[in-house]
Amino acid sequence: MTTMHQAPAKTASAFLFLLCMASSCAASPPGSDTPADYSHALPLQVNGKQGVVALRLPQSVYLHARTAGLDDLRVFDAQGTAQPHALHRPPEQRLELRTWLAARIFPVHSKTRMAAGGSSAIDIDIQTRSDGSVLSVQAHAGKANDRGGTVLDSLILDFGPVEKGNDKDKDNETATAHIEALRFGAPKGRANYNAQIWLETSNDLRQWSAIGAAELGWLSNDNAQMLAHDRLELSTQIFRYARLTWRRGEPVLFADIQAEVVTRQRSEPFRETLWLKPVSGQQAGDLLYKASIAMPVEQISVKLSEANIVYPMALGAYVERPSRQVGKATEWVFQPSARATFYQITQNGETRRSGPLTIRPGHQQEWVIRPLNAAATAQPELGLTWQPATLVFLAGGTPPYRLHFGHPDARPTSQPLSQVAPGFTANELGQLESAQVGELKSGNTGTAAESAAAQAGRSARNRTYVLWGVLLLGVLVLGGMAWRLVRQMNNSASKR
Predict the structure, then answer these.
(1) Do the domains spanning 96-266 and 272-386 agree at the CATH topology level?
(2) Where are the transmembrane segments (predicted)?
(3) What is the Cα–Cα distance from 201 to 179, expressed in whole angstroms?
(4) What is the pLDDT of residues 428-440, one digit of tens each?
(5) What region, left, alpha or beta, does residue 247 occupy, with left being phi > 0 and alpha being psi -120 to 50 degrees?
(6) Domain segments of the chain as ranges
């Protein structure tokens, strides 16, 4: 009897083991990771002199990669050895433009010299035009007098309007013109000159801010060579008007005075845009656009072919949820993520078009547009825009190299940038050699990207096949157990 109890126990254990193995085989990804496992490849051309190379990922990578995080990217050398790589987005670049802005100079003459800083009894009458430009400057000290017997007291400078930008730009030092220095031209007819000046600035000719003092000087020799100290460095300033007085030295009329104007602007990052044509969605009126899960879409655009059209729409995707209908396990429903109104209108000979819509970056295999106007018949193209990542890889192993992608079950192997290019500064990373890509190659194992619904259906069918296989195996095992028990019982009865 002991043998009869042990046999079913061992058989049941074997059955459970097979069940676990079957489930594991159904869920575990393949362990192979060779160039042949990837559906597409791009040959990479490098000069072979640099150890770290960069590549801004082309659109073809995003079209054929099979994972949202680009986990299926590999750089293989000629021997099929994967090279260390990292993915990153280059930091935002700022453009800096330096120009020189000449001041209009208005001398102030009076009988009494103004003290440095403007603490004097001199009353200055400044006339301006409607645009704020200075028209004339007149000093009044005591009774009025003609130019005879007066001395140069100070200089009023008008640099013209300076673009300030909006508050947001000002805080970030973008799209704003700043004055960082003044440069003085040597006084005419003065081979040698030395003085200390005092600078004040204003934007309204009423309120003046003291900036400070500076030494200016020019020294010439017999060979007509000149040593000049003609520059006044400033902390970043935004002003239109300036006033110069003298702390030391003789007041003179400079040949010219120019402001060094620095304009800083953010540079727009490089973006890719893919235009897609629609197909009919799962629900009437919906337009479906098949894309790639790898695209980190951050903007959408709509291209309308009609001359005059206003097109309100909802953007979203189909999601699977339990069905409320009897006899149906699941159903696909539209889930909106954004709403917008796109348009194209011709008015007075000009065409007005809506711009792109910025959305939260997302990865979708399919995008769905649902018109909010039930009578809409337009079939617009959908533009998906994203910022491509930069691939940085270590050019080791044996060249040439190939970038492989297109493997839905690939495990992530991207490393931190510090482990691929350790010690590299942001400036050095921006100057890395850029690999050149060759013609796109398709592998033997690649398959066309499936839609989300197709992937879900395939997964469900695979689970069903595995389950039926396990159940069939269980029936066979139980049948074997029953047959063995019957034989043992018959043998025991015959021995009696």
Answers:
(1) yes
(2) 465-486
(3) 11
(4) 998 999 999 999 9
(5) alpha
(6) 2-28+453-495, 37-89+388-446, 96-266, 272-386
Strand 241-248 and strand 357-362: the pairing is: unpaired
DSSP bridge pairs for 183: 231, 258
What is the assigned CATH class of domain 96-266? mainly beta
* Distance, CA of 122 to CA of 174 (rounded, Å): 40
Q: How far apart are CA 214 and CA 233, in angstroms?
A: 9
Angle between helices 452-495 and 2-27 (to 10 degrees): 170
Quick one: CA dihedral 402, 404, 410, 411, positive or negative? positive
Question: What Å distances lie between residue 248 and 63, 116, 243, 490, CA to CA?
Answer: 71, 9, 16, 128
- pTM more than 0.70: no
Tokens read off for 84? 């260390």
Q: Which amino acid is at 139?
A: A
Residue 372 tokens read as 């909010």
DSSP helix/strand/coil, 5: helix
H/E element holding 94? strand 94-102
Strand extents, DSSP E, 163-256: 176-184, 193-202, 209-220, 226-229, 231-237, 241-248
Question: Which residue did the predictor score with more confidence, 299 or 470?
Answer: 299
Q: How far apart are CA 121 and CA 249, in angstroms?
A: 21
Domain 272-386, classified CATH 2.60.120.260, yes or no = yes
Segment among 69-73, 138-142, 342-346, 419-423 with least mean pLDDT: 138-142
Kindly report which listed range (171-180, 186-195, 446-455, 477-486) carries the lowest average pLDDT score: 446-455
